[in-house]
Amino acid sequence: MKEGPDSNTGSGARETQAFPGGIKKLEAGALLPDWVVRLDRTAFGAAWKAPADHECLWLIPEVAFARWALIPAAGEAELLRIAVDPAYRGQSLGRVLLEACQRDLAAEGLIRLFLEVRTSNAAAIRLYGACGWQRCGLRSGYYPDGEDAVLFRHGRP
Ligand SMILES: CC(C)(COP(=O)(O)OP(=O)(O)OC[C@H]1O[C@@H](n2cnc3c(N)ncnc32)[C@H](O)[C@@H]1OP(=O)(O)O)[C@@H](O)C(=O)NCCC(=O)NCCS
After folding, report:
1. Between the N and C ends of the chain, which has fewer C-beta atoms within 10 Å?
2. Which of the listed residues 67, 96, 126, 147 should we mutate to test ligand 1's pocket, taking the one with most ligand atoms within 8 A of CB?
3. For 42-66, how does the pLDDT look when each residue is reduced to its tens digit (9 = 90+)?
């Protein structure tokens, strides 16, 4: 999970159907739907702006989002944020969404995935383990309040 500024600006909506079953991909430059901004604030306290050139989001509309930074030249991607509406947590939607992202990223050749998460975030740490992520490090005092971050990776080293 990354910390970030509270703004919502974008240029032109481009939303593409990425998966059957209602999961959608929101490309760089798209306006963030209002529900994403609300969920971002609910889950993290502050919403991020529209996805930058190297970013995209996968959505379960009205319910969940996962935001990624892509580094295609390196075959890598970083999970920046994932959130499920509190009313829908514990119903495997986080897992469904994250696994869908992983499949789609692999299809695009992005096979080395990274993330960091607060050491206290038991739900997220369990989710990552369930989706095949492995702990690969610790960043001491990474967050503004001094909490450590656990590093995870997924895919080939
Ligand atoms: C983390 C989060 C996305 C998980 O979404 P979710 O839809 O509730 O997760 P799932 O139902 O798919 O559960 C996936 C795994 O996590 C476990 N899990 C879910 N909630 C949990 C909790 N509160 N405590 C412990 N484990 C939990 C599930 O048991 C499951 O593991 P299992 O398959 O081994 O049983 C959700 O809790 C959330 O939005 N949290 C706030 C935002 C956040 O912290 N994001 C992560 C940092 S970017």
Report:
1. C
2. 126
3. 999 988 998 999 999 999 999 999 9
The active-site residue, picked from 76, 78, 128, 142, is 128
Catalytic site includes residue 143: no
pLDDT per residue over 62-120, tens digit each? 999 999 999 999 999 999 999 999 999 999 999 999 999 999 999 999 999 999 999 99
Name the CATH topology of 15-115.
Aminopeptidase (3.40.630)
**Catalytic (active site) residue 3:** no
Residues near 109 by beta carbon (within 8 Å), at least 6 away in sequence:
72, 75
Residue 20 phi/psi, 5° resolution?
Answer: -70, 160
Parse the chain into domains and list their residue ranges: 15-115
